[in-house]
Write a structure and sequence with these properties.
The complex is a heterodimer of chains A (126) and B (166). Chain A is of the alpha/beta class and 126 residues long. Chain A is built from five helices and five strands. In chain B, helix 3 packs across helix 4. Chain B is globular and about 45 Å long. Classes of the chains: A alpha/beta (126), B alpha+beta (166). At the A-B interface, helix 1 of A face helix 2, helix 3 and helix 4 of B.
């Protein structure tokens, strides 16, 4: 399975890519909106997207809209990765097309729980 | 949040938020500690998040440069000799961001959080007004880590600072 991580933080890209890789995902990472939109216009089609909420050049909501605008991603799962604890914001994201949200601090356990919820069963033990 | 509510905030809340982040995110335990008196001069790294809403304030997570490098290396799995300054800057910003997210529910009226800013500082020269600052002093791996919340005037704007020489 393929996963795209979009986060302006290199730290979070490294951490999330490593955790997803341990679950057997082929992972690509983008550092913001422009790089993410490049991937979305390519032939490489992720089954899972992990979006940061707060980035300088694009919002997580914009990325959700960009994914859901493409029919080929109709079954793809979107996981918002966020420090925000405002439930209204998270509900807004889910209403816009996100499937789940992952609260920081991210670790192997809470990521595995979310993958299970999304029906993306790990193929390799983390 | 009114001045009165800010005054009533318990520094233990800052400590607890930080402990949760380190325990859940990094499998590390923070210990309660006390500030050295006087603080030894030296380079510290400071990660800041600006809160906005019914009041405005600044969360700062500050740690000595050496500890910041050790923490970053442990988190990313990178040996110290291969650790770029940019990696330390980014990691400390994300650390502040994560602590801010855990702390936010304890701050009534806060709606927004900024992206992280990271700078270097010399805490021995810092001036802190106890009427406008809450601070928790913790220890990680036997070294100090300060977590503080500063009440800012409404017109306060967070400026983009030059990248520090870390």
């Amino acid at each position: 399975m393929r996963a795209l991580v979009v986060d302006d933080s290199a730290t979070m890209r490294i951490v999330l890519s490593r955790l997803l890789g341990a679950h057997g995902f082929e992972v690509r990472a983008a550092d913001g909106g422009a790089a993410a939109l490049d991937v979305l216009s390519s032939d490489w089609a992720p089954e899972l997207f992990l979006f940061d909420w707060n980035m300088p050049d694009i919002t997580g909501l914009d990325l959700i809209a960009a994914v859901r605008a493409q029919a080929r991603f109709a079954d793809a799962k979107i996981l918002m990765v966020t420090s925000e604890t405002d439930m209204a914001l998270m509900q807004h994201a889910v209403h816009a097309g996100a499937n789940e949200y992952l609260m920081r601090p991210v670790n192997a356990t809470n990521l595995a729980e979310k993958l299970e919820l999304l029906g993306l069963h790990p193929t390799v033990a983390p | 949040m009114s001045d009165e509510k800010f005054d009533q905030l318990d520094p233990a809340t800052l400590a607890q938020s930080s402990k949760i982040v380190f325990r859940q995110g990094f499998g590390m335990e923070l210990e309660d500690s006390k500030p050295a008196d006087p603080l030894e001069p030296g380079v510290w790294v400071s990660g800041s998040i600006f809160f906005s809403g019914e009041w405005s304030g600044l969360l700062r997570v500050e740690l000595p440069l050496g500890l910041a490098r050790t923490f970053t290396g442990d988190w990313l799995g990178i040996a110290d000799e291969h650790l770029e300054p940019a990696a330390v800057i980014d990691a400390i910003g994300e650390l502040a961001n994560t602590v801010a997210g855990i702390l936010k529910p304890a701050l009534p009226g806060i709606k927004g959080m900024s992206v992280p800013r990271v700078s270097e500082t010399d805490l021995s020269k810092a001036i802190r007004d106890p009427k406008r600052t809450h601070q928790a002093v913790l220890a990680l791996k036997g070294q100090p880590m300060h977590v503080s919340l500063w009440k800012c005037p409404p017109q306060f704007k967070m400026l983009v600072v030059p990248k520090p020489k870390v």
